[in-house]
Amino acid sequence: MRIHHLRATAFGPFPDEVSVDFDELTAAGLFLIHGPTGAGKTSLLDAICFALFADVPGLRDKRGIVSDHAAPSAVPSVELEFTCGTRRFILRRSPAHLRAKKRGTGTIETPATVALSEHLDGEWVVVSTRNDETAEVLHDVLGMGKEQFAKVAMLPQGEFAAFLTAKDDERRALLEKLFDITRFADVEEWLVDARRSSEATVAGLRAGIDTDLARLADVVARSTASGEDESHAGASDDAAGSDERLLEGLPALDPDSPDAIRGLLETMATRIEVTLSEAMVRLDAASSADVAAASAFQDGRSVQSLRERASAARVSLGALESAQDEIARARSVHDRATRAGSVRGDLAAVERARAEVHRRQASVAEAHAAVSRLVTTGFDSSDTAVGDSAVPRTALPDSGLVDKDRGTDRVDAEVVHGRSPEALVRVLRQHDDNLRELLRLDAERTARARRAREQLRDMEAATSVLQSAAERRTTASDRVEAATAAVTASLDATTSLAGLEQAAAEARSRVDLARRTLDDGALLDRLVRESADARSRAQDARDHELDLVARRLSQMAAELAERLVDGEACSVCGATAHPSPAQGGRQVTEAELDAARVAHADLVAAHHECEVRVTTTRTRIEEALRQLAVASVEELDLDAFEFGSVEATRRHDTARALAAEHAQRTAHLDAARAALTALEDSVAAARHELTRVSAMAEQTREDEESARVAMSALWISHADCPCGSTSAAESSDNAARTEAHAADSEPFPGSDAVAELASRHRAAVDSAAAWAEAVARHAETAERLKAALDAGLIAVTDAGFESFSEATDAVLPSGELQRIGDRLRDHDRARAGALSVLHDPMVMAAEEALPPDLALLEREAVAARSALLAAKSAQTEAAGAQRSFRAIRSSLTAGLDAAGPALAHHHRVKDLADTFSGGGLNNTLRMRLTSYVLAARLDKVARLANERLRIMGDGRYSLEHSDRLAARGARSGLGLRVLDQWTGVSRETSTLSGGEAFMASLALALGLADAVREESGGFDLGTLFVDEGFGTLDDESLEQVISVLDSLREGGRAVGVVSHVGELRSRITHQLVVRKTASGSTVAIAGPGSESAA
């Protein structure tokens, strides 16, 4: 890579644009960048790095690269022109920065921009304007990143001096940035992940085994505790001691000792089986003892309970004997109430029958009244046959039991005209068929009336439709005529369209020609004036030229006069006396004469050009006036031409619009004709519909007349019905019927009369049926009352009562009867119970026996039960321990079987991961794999550095890579030492003097740059920078270092030294000077004897 040009604006300490031509600066190969401290020498290198990578090297923040000295309106930017191989690029980059808002106050952040252009086929072509794409292209071209470029192309001496004396870890950090060791780091990471995975697997297995051992210890501990309890109860001390020894040995077990764990499991299995057997034997013994003690205690309690029952029975029996009289009276009352309760249903049945008879009598009376109101034909409401005999009389019994209670009067049902209610119903129903037919005919009449109204509306509508269709047919005919005229007009317009279009075009051309002619007239006046002025200026120039010629001739005489000498002959006239020599004025030079001649010729040419233009313009005006048929420009009326053009255009537009509407108007004509045809069809259809509706209306009138005759006959025949409905209906409908049918000889009822007739007839039928039903129900109720009286009399006599009233008085409420019965039963049960207890053989035997000692028996039972519970708990613990042990043994055995291969695999992976990570027993140097790879790179760097250090240090020192083991367990393998060839002693790099350290650091930086270039594919840097550090060298060492730097120019490479050391200014002739002021810094290129601002 070779840098050609750098341009930076508002960057770092540079407020204005600075431009550095590196082609000029690097002409000698070696150049110096110098200036006072803080002037901005390193900022120039930052500008190069920022242009390439959008960032600055080191710890500097790229957000601070915008110059604080620059004007607020300045746009910070860096432009770098460089060549990589055969490709030449220009890279323009602007960082994100704040600028003033275009509207209002304050600032707004402008985002960063980039533009990469490449020189192709003689021109610059933009490659990319995106940051990511530009970064990809530059990485492909340069072959390295920012960190590598900063270390390889700029060689910061301060950092390499630190690199020379750094610790292995610090040196490793820099080398990792410069050399790609990703694949080796991936191997390290993969092995660490594998170790971590195997550790997790082993840890999981160990945790499982440890958990099982802890559970096993818990089982042993519980077994030991149980054994101690049992030893107190009589178990052997040897077993307890064995359990304690097992418990003490468990913490010493390790998952890595599977044989010891398996042996322990066998021992514990045998011990747990023995413990369980012993616990079961003890449980059997404790259970037998508990049964015996509990039985003895229960027997004692039974004896005591029997003695207490006997005492309570004697006390209860005495209290019962003292209430014997009261119990006898209650028993008598309860007996009478019980007998009365047996006939309570018969008494209630008599009362219910009597009440029902009263209700039925009222119903018969109400039904008879309703019939009297509705059945009026030949019926007198005061008729004795329909008097009180209409309600049957039944003699109701009183509360006595004599025969008069059985009597009942006969029900008289002959009421209307000597007829029964059933006969009246039959007569009324005989007229139902006539009435239904009358209703049907009336409904049809109503429907025909509705149809007649609808037919009338249809006739009116048909008439209206016919009239409307006729009117629309007339309108459609008019539209057809109008459409025909419009089509004719559009056809004529289509025919004349071409001629009108040509006329409009000609009118527009005449307007344009007239406008141009007027412009040419004005132009002609101006050209005439310009021609006159040009002729005047040419004449003035001619006069000026002749004046200069005359003055030049006069000047020539004066020149000859100046050469005259008194006594010498004149070269013109030969006279030796010169009384009045010519006097010279202002000198006229040949240049002045030439200028005057050229000015005159130019003005003459200008005048000729004006004349040509005048002639051309005049000819053009004359031709235009001839075409416009106008005598002169003054007579030219532009408004008239424009008006004519507008009129022609209007006529053309009108014709074009009509022609464009021809197809549409033709379609309208076709549509109008189709509409006219459709309307003629509509008129015919309307006439047909009117004829059809008129025929239907005539048929409806004929049907109405036939129905009228039938309804009159039915109305007359219904007059014989007992309901008398026709008289009422005729009176209500008389006015309407008389008005509507005054000419008719037969009666004709209206719809309201028919409806009223039907309603009254149905009401009469329903009332007569209800009356017949009420009479029948009353007769049935009277029979039920008679039967209830007979059955009640028998039941009361059988119960021992003499009358209904005596039986009724003996009845008690159910609650009271239940209370007395409960008291009697309680008394009887209590007395029988007391006697039963006293006569019980067991009670009698208990009274004869001695009182038992229950407290002693209870203590013995409690003690036996406690021993049983303890034995059960021990047996349960032993059985649970056995189950737990079996589960733990199975899990522990499975864990031990799986742990063996997993541990072997983990040891192998751990040894590899530790070795590759710089640890482990096999890695005595504690060197990581990546460190081993970097060590090879460092060894190569040292060899390359020694090639330059041998020259700079007279061959005394050489750098050597050291893999010596570091102290206190630190990582090693990246050490650097210096070998003193004069003494043969290898020592630490920190023992070098300042100058020696600088030379070693410079050589190391150059060697590292060479190694990185080889690592990146042999990429060649055409421009290198060495930054600072030369102040520590003496003159001889400085000369040697410069010679080494000078050797770097081989192959056309340019080397720039960045330093403020004054000695270098005399040794390096090509320089870039950086100056600082209060308003910012500037740069200038200084050559061997000159300086130019950059």
UniProtKB/TrEMBL annotation:
GO terms for molecular function: ATP hydrolysis activity. It comes from the Bacteria. Residues 382-405, 726-750 are annotated as: Disordered. Residues 726-735 have a biased composition (Polar residues). The keyword Zinc does not apply. GO terms for biological process: double-strand break repair. Transmembrane segments: none annotated. Residues 10-181 form the Rad50/SbcC-type AAA domain. Pfam families: AAA_23, SbcC_Walker_B. Residues 497-544 form a coiled coil. Belongs to the SMC family. SbcC subfamily. This is Nuclease SbcCD subunit C.
